[in-house]
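Two entries, shown back to back:
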Amino acid sequence: MSLAYSGLHMKAHFTTVVPVTLAAALGSYLFYQYVFCKTPKKSWVNLDIKKDSVKVVDSFDIEDIGSKAVYCRCWRSKKFPYCDGAHSKHNDETGDNVGPLIIKKKNV
């Protein structure tokens, strides 16, 4: 009788230990993922330029550019769509490497 009792006791103990162990392992994994494996949050690139438009589109005729035009690609320029150098501050703050789009006329 004591053998049957110890078998039942062992089974009851096992059914308690396994779920608790699994819950602890899952909790530890989720905690590790939350603390150490954070992915950058997706955010808006355009923070405040023409927000009332569905899509920001600027078009220029090549004849109107002159010899050189410098356009913003970081969306931080106060003179958008033209570059004012705001990408330098953006790059320092974020570690990004964005720069302007420079269009030059070819010397013939």
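entry 2 starts here
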Amino acid sequence: MSEKSRVTYFLGIGGIGMSALAHIVLEKGGEVRGIDRNGSQITRQLEEKGATIFIGDEAPIGAGANVVYSSSIAQSHPAMQMAKQLNCRLFHRSEFLNKLMESQLPILVTGSHGKTSTTALLTWVLMHAGFDPSYAVGGILIDTGKNGGHGRGKYFVAEADESDGSFLNYNGHFGIITNVDQEHLNYWKTEELLRDGCRKFASHLENLFWCADDASLSALKLNGQSYGTCEDAHWRLFDVCHDKMNLIFSISHNGHQFERIRLSMVGKHQALNATAVWGLAHELGVPEDKIRQAFLTFGGVHRRLEKKGEVRGIVVYDDYAHHPTEIAAILTALKQANPGCYIRAIFQAHKYTRTRDCLHLFSSAFQSANTVFISEIYAAGEQPIEGISGRTLSSVIPGSSFMSDYEILENLKVNSRPGDVIVTIGAGNITQLGPKILNVL
């Protein structure tokens, strides 16, 4: 499609999914306008690149424009109503992403957990190897400072969102499924329907990499190449260890061993994600030395165990984890990478529905933390559910304390000691607490 031919309006342009596509349209020479209820670093960056952004729910949409919306935008939204009256071309975000990918070969990454880190790492590997891919990622790459970009190479790397079923709108040249877990059941209703959705997604891919360590994926008996620690995986991960905040691991494939691969991330879950990226990059013809160099230089993704700073020997991290499986993984990774350290975890649950659906799973998610603080739930636009609150969540997590942000800061100020690791966890505004913690330490 020609993005230069008409103006493209993004509803909720400050969102991580929308802004990625806005970056691409701008870099292809198109005119971008958008609305968002709040300004942010993301909207300011887009404005600096030439986008016109209106704060609020209304914008002067022109007749015949492209209007891109996400599943979170109600059909009754004033901008949607105006777009319909003006006979604008309406695109769900997934439909517009499909249009952007038309002239390149899509490489799609999905899964309940790890898809952003995996997509970002794969993007960086292809960039480092000179493949110049386009990309749309659900997080900001520290190496590029953005979450989307237009490349002139043959590949388009995109995170495929399973949360609203929109990943079924894509067809891919290559793809990765990292795992399937009890997540986004407000849309899927049952785990069986979610697994069936993943099976259908897999059928849309010409070449698939899937994690054999995941029981749900293994049960689907998918075609393609498997990866994992199990003996029969096509790409077998072994000898995983940490060197401080770095991973060292090896991979075997068809009788060949790729030994002592180093990656600037932590956690066995990231080693698994990296194994998928290694295998796929190998299939695309990326030389081994280029993959190794890219793994060494990968800067990571904002809000994925991102180091916010260090004061008096106390290190503060921030992570986007919001599902119990993710929380357990990042806390275990921190413990393994920092043996003997005292971990202070601060968690803000994301959405009342997820808290309700996963309440029983949260009880064991924080076992690698020494101290756990729970703040109030981040609603993310949802209405409260009776009997579900931050205090409710704290009651099922052994040894945790429900506190306000002020109380958490005061506690950390008094009790934190050199050598401690503090981590803020959650997909909401808990990320804003990190700088405040550094100020009080």
